[in-house]
UniProtKB/TrEMBL annotation:
Residues 1-238 form the Deacetylase sirtuin-type domain. It is an enzyme of class 2 (transferase). It comes from Taeniopygia guttata. The gene is SIRT3. Coiled coil: none annotated. This is NAD-dependent protein deacetylase. NAD-dependent protein deacetylase. Residues 248-271 are annotated as: Disordered. GO terms for molecular function: histone deacetylase activity, NAD-dependent; NAD+ binding; NAD-dependent protein lysine delactylase activity; sequence-specific DNA binding; zinc ion binding. The active site is at H106.
Length: 271
């Protein structure tokens, strides 16, 4: 189970970290209250703030870090049953985890849907509009096209239901970079069998790790990258991890996405 904390080392602010979190840096979005950015009612009146955020998070602006590549390594080794992420930045995909292995519980920018005729489109079709600060319109009915990000009150993607079979089957649960405050995602932490060790890698204790610990829970507190790297070292996978990251960096270096201007990550931060 992953959250915004696995992507802060890639330069994407989380919601709740005081000072750097998105909720502390909303002035430029000109919205009445933080949650408005993900509210359908507000979106239909004024979609601009959401698309300003979409421009930041559209696939291609940010690169995965060791936490994402740790998931990829587990996948390559056949050890990853399924990553459940709350993130909408798509960095699990960029790290090479196939979308059909993933549950992106709060949606994705990789696909989009017309709010009027409900036609589905690849998110890529609207890159030009989003980057050019234009509200994307359906080529068929001209309705506003909304990336498939789950707004407040919207249903989670069908794939979220996979948890019903996945969690009882797991024999280890990693919880990485999340405050475990958003439901129903947060409750998944309690859905593994009680004999299953749960490993938290996060800045602070969260959810059941704080208030309902099990005897076999483990917490590695501190930065996610440091925590993951420590674990990788204990597992004896350091070299493999370095090779994987190097290989992926070279792919990016060869310019796998020619539409992207080269840009320093930090220059894209909201704060
Ligand atoms: P959150 O509520 O902002 O919590 C993040 C957690 O990660 C907190 O406990 C932080 O202390 C911790 N954290 C942040 N950075 C680090 C770090 N470098 N090392 C260790 N711990 C760290 O975010 P959640 O994901 O729990 O909340 C769910 C929301 C946030 C979902 O709806 C997401 O869509 C949404 N979100 C996603 C992104 C993204 O896609 N990258 C960014 C911001 C918010």
């Amino acid at each position: 189970m992953a959250g915004a904390g696995i992507s802060t080392p890639s330069g994407i602010p989380d919601f709740r970290s005081p000072g750097s979190g998105l909720y502390s840096n909303l002035e430029q979005y000109d919205i009445p209250y933080p949650e408005a950015i993900f509210e359908l009612g507000y979106f239909f009146v004024n979609p601009k703030p959401f698309f300003t955020l979409a421009k930041e998070l559209y696939p291609g602006n940010y690169r995965p870090n060791s936490a994402h590549y740790f998931l990829r390594l587990l996948h390559d080794k056949g050890l990853l049953l399924r990553p459940y992420t709350q993130n909408i930045d798509g960095l699990e995909r960029v790290a090479g985890i196939p979308p059909d292995r993933l549950v992106e519980a709060h949606g994705t920018f990789a696909t989009a849907t017309c709010t009027v005729c409900q036609r589905n489109f690849p998110g890529e079709d609207f890159r030009g509009d989003v980057m050019g600060d234009r509200i994307p319109r359906c080529p068929v009915c001209t309705g506003v096209v909304k990336p498939d990000i789950v707004f407040f009150g919207e249903q989670l993607p069908q794939r979220f239901l996979l948890h019903l079979t996945d969690f009882p089957m797991a024999d280890l649960l990693f919880v990485i970079g999340t405050s475990l405050e958003v439901e129903p995602f947060a409750s998944l932490a309690g859905a593994v069998r009680s004999s299953v060790p749960r490993v938290l890698i996060n800045r602070e204790l969260v959810g059941p790790f704080a208030w309902q610990q099990r005897h076999n829970d483990v917490a590695q507190l501190g930065d996610v990258v440091g925590g993951v790297e420590k674990l990788v070292e204990l597992l004896g996978w350091k070299k493999e991890m370095q090779t994987l990251i190097q290989k992926e960096k070279e792919k990016v270096g060869r310019g796998s996405d020619p539409q992207l201007p080269p840009q320093p990550l930090r220059s894209l931060c909201w704060s």
